[in-house]
Amino acid sequence: MRKSAQYSFFVVLLSAGIIAFSRYSDLTSWEDPVQQWAQVTFSHKFHTEEAEAECSDCHAAAETSTLAQDFLLPVEETCAECHEVEDESECSTCHAEDSVREAFRSPQREVIFNHQQHLVRELECATCHQGVEMSEEPSTAYLPVMADCISCHEDQGQNTACETCHSHVETRQPVSHVELDWIKEHKRLVRVDTPANDCSSCHTDNDCQSCHATAEVMFTLSDLKRPLSENRINAFTGKGLVKQRVHDLNYVFTHGLDFRSKRSDCVSCHDQQQFCSSCHDQNQDSGFLRPQPMSHLGEDFTRLGVGSGGGRHAELARRDIASCAVCHDTRGQDPECVLCHVDRLPGLGNDPKTHVGGFLSTRENGWHDDPGALCYSCHTNTRTAGIGFCGYCHGIK
Fold first, then answer.
1. Does the residue 363 lie in any domain?
2. Which of 52, 163, 243, 377 could make a disulfide contact with 330, Cβ separation 3.0–4.6 Å?
3. Are 41 and 138 part of one and the same domain?
4. In the prediction, which pLDDT does 62 show?
């Protein structure tokens, strides 16, 4: 039984490792039609070692190419310049599948690249296509990754700005960065030590400061990829890499609640006059007088009267009363709530209903023992049987 459990654990662990590696190992790969290339049998190794062919013999168009999406692969006529076709009915020498006869598509690339400009500077093909001379099957593994380009540009004193090589820079980012759990899971990518996952291709460690704070991250020239041990507690400072993002993503909509009750916490970091006035200016919010959520504009938002159900606002309040309190003071300073939620007539069932059926039998919320119970945000503790809130259940003695 123990062996079975250990085996199951190993399988789960291995599966998780495979998924993590496949998810985070190569996020900047080229999306060229490799499967289509595989329809032709070709070995770079044979042509460079045995036939002593030069790159320009097959890729002559590269010398005048100015676009990354230019078609630079040899066509049948190019191959025929060296290979004699002895039997036109025998195609398997070059074609892996006799039934497939389709022209290769041009690659779809957003990268800005000029082969001609690089070749004029006498750059060798192997500088960017490392190891291609030993390849025996089609692959994008021999195309340069961003780290290769940046390394060379820095050595040569060339521009390394994103727009030098990428179009649509304002929306350009790896697929992984748009995943919902990216903020939580990006740590796994940083720890995968492959050139394609070099965060420093786009980021400096100053970018880390927006969410993390620690003395070890302050130097912009240091390497972003670091041993796992550096992320643990520092023996001298007693601090490790800590989250600095204090507020959740919806905090702009709920911060009013904290401001009322924890104002001193807010001013620990924010200057009330300057920071708050960027949105709240002259008793207005972001330029709009008394802004309100879209839910408040619907015709069904408020329904009045006993048995009406209260409408949409009642549903939202039951779901999250704290969000209401961001703008409305439930204790009466803001009269919005108490216009309807007030004991006009003594006894149960005479005023608009607030709680769901059976509320009293399911939870008490501590109103008997706790003067600060949530109930007293709306109800008045009369401490007298038969009167007001206490009179709902306790008759006159």
1. yes
2. 377
3. yes
4. 92
- Determine contact, residues 194/26, Cβ cutoff 8 Å: yes
Burial of 201 (C-beta count, 10 Å sphere; 0-12/13-18/19+): buried
Angle at 300 between CA 297 and CA 303, to 5 degrees: 115
Q: Assess whether pLDDT exceeds 60 at residue 38.
A: yes
Q: Which residues contact 390 (CB under 8 A, 6 or more apart)?
A: 381, 382, 383, 384
Q: Inform me whether the pLDDT recorded for 76 exceeds 60.
A: yes
Q: Which two tokens stand for residue 208?
A: 């880390």
| Domain ranges, residue 387 | 355-397
234 is a domain residue: yes
> What integer is the mean pLDDT of 221-227?
49
Mean pLDDT, the chain, rounded, equals 72
State the Cα–Cα distance between residues 234 and 215, nearest whole angstrom. Answer: 10
Give the residue from 220, 243, 266 where a domain finishes: 243
**Residue pLDDT, tens place only, 273-302:** 777 777 776 555 444 445 667 778 888 888
Report the distance separating Cα 144 and Cα 365, nearest Å: 64
- How far the first Cα of the chain sits from its last, in Å, is 68
Tens of pLDDT, residues 336-381: 676 777 666 666 666 666 676 666 665 556 778 787 776 776 677 8
Confidence tier at 59 by pLDDT (50, 70, 90): very high
Q: Is the pLDDT of residue 260 over 90?
A: no
Is pLDDT of 71 > 50? yes
Is the same domain home to 135 and 185? Answer: no
Rounded to the nearest 10°, the torsion over CA 221, 224, 225, 230 is: 90
